[in-house]
Design goal:
This protein is α+β, with helices and mostly antiparallel strands. The chain has helices at residues 25-28, 44-50, 97-105, 123-130, 221-232, 252-268, and strands at residues 5-6, 41-42, 52-59, 62-68, 77-80, 87-89, 111-113, 134-137, 151-154, 158-160, 166-169, 178-182, 191-195, 199-200, 207-208, 210-212, 217-218, 238-241, 247-248. 21% of the residues lie in helices and 26% in strands. The protein has a 7-stranded mixed sheet with strand order 3-4-5-6-7-8-9. The protein has a 6-stranded mixed sheet with strand order 10-11-12-13-18-19, with no helix packed on it. A two-stranded antiparallel ribbon has the order 1-2.
Length: 269
């Protein structure tokens, strides 16, 4: 039985034999898109034939894992190395033998947490490979396309993990959009792993916020103010976004505050 994968967003669906799903609900949502040529599908086996994963150390205790050549949205995951067990933040679709062995050599994965549905990817395969629970904010449970008994749909504004790490529901991009606060990164000054809930822009002096990035649909001011308030309660100096070069190395908390102010002023005129 094949679990088909959407070529555009990288989401793996429940097993459906040789016939792929009729639709990708994630891509048909206004926050994503279906390619002009129509829906296209692949499988994990086919993906392994032409792609591989790369590992890069961002800093002590944080390793990026990304697929080359780029696939789907092209985000990279982050592996937080922590004394009580490593946490995989966000997910990528490709999982192969090399990736499993490399991560096992780094201590495995104790928990998986994902910022929002565009990065659910092949979460069930990653969870099964490492025996790790997957923490998803309950507000987004409708977007799970491949079910797994390992999924924990947590509710509320925050969830404590271990070693001081916690998930914070900011809303915005999705109702359940979440960031991960890691207090021991950035030499103990703290880091926020944000996916694209808080989007690091190219100059790194600002961040931004959107309902849909590919379709250029903005968020209302109230949603941005909520994101700023939720992240403002945390102590952090650094932000890691969803792609290799999207990070703010220092002063990130101030960057988010002034970016939210700039955004609201621009939207309200």
């Amino acid at each position: 039985m094949s679990s088909h994968i959407c070529f555009t967003c990288g989401t793996q669906f429940d097993e459906s034999g040789d016939t792929p799903p009729a639709h990708c609900l994630i891509c048909e949502d206004p926050r994503q898109y279906v390619r002009a040529g129509g829906q296209r599908w692949t499988t994990m086996e086919k993906l392994r034939e032409g792609h591989h994963n790369e590992f890069r150390r961002h800093e002590e205790g944080l390793i990026g894992v990304g697929t080359a050549p780029d696939f789907a949205i092209a985000q990279r995951a982050l592996l937080v190395l922590s004394p009580s067990g490593n946490v995989l933040w966000d997910c990528i679709t490709l999982l192969d033998e090399f990736t499993e062995k490399t991560i096992a050599g780094l201590g495995g994965i104790a928990a998986i947490a994902i910022s929002h549905p565009h990065y659910y990817s092949s979460l069930a395969e990653w969870s099964a490979a490492f025996g790790a629970p997957v923490y998803l904010q309950a507000g987004d449970r409708q977007w799970v396309m491949r079910t797994s008994k390992s999924i924990v749909h947590w509710e509320g504004e925050e969830l404590e993990l271990h070693d001081g790490m916690r998930l914070v529901n900011t809303g915005g991009h999705f109702d359940g959009s979440t960031v991960l606060h890691v207090p021991f990164l950035a030499a103990g000054r703290g880091a926020l792993l944000t996916g694209d809930t808080i989007q690091v822009i190219p100059d790194r002096n600002y961040v931004s916020f959107m309902y849909s990035y590919p379709n250029l649909i903005p968020l209302p001011p109230a949603s941005v103010e909520r994101i700023a308030a939720a992240s403002g309660r945390l102590e952090y100096a650094r932000i890691y976004g969803a792609w290799w070069d999207r990070l703010i190395p220092t002063g990130a908390k101030d960057v988010v505050a002034r970016s939210a102010d700039r955004y609201v002023r621009a939207i309200t005129g």
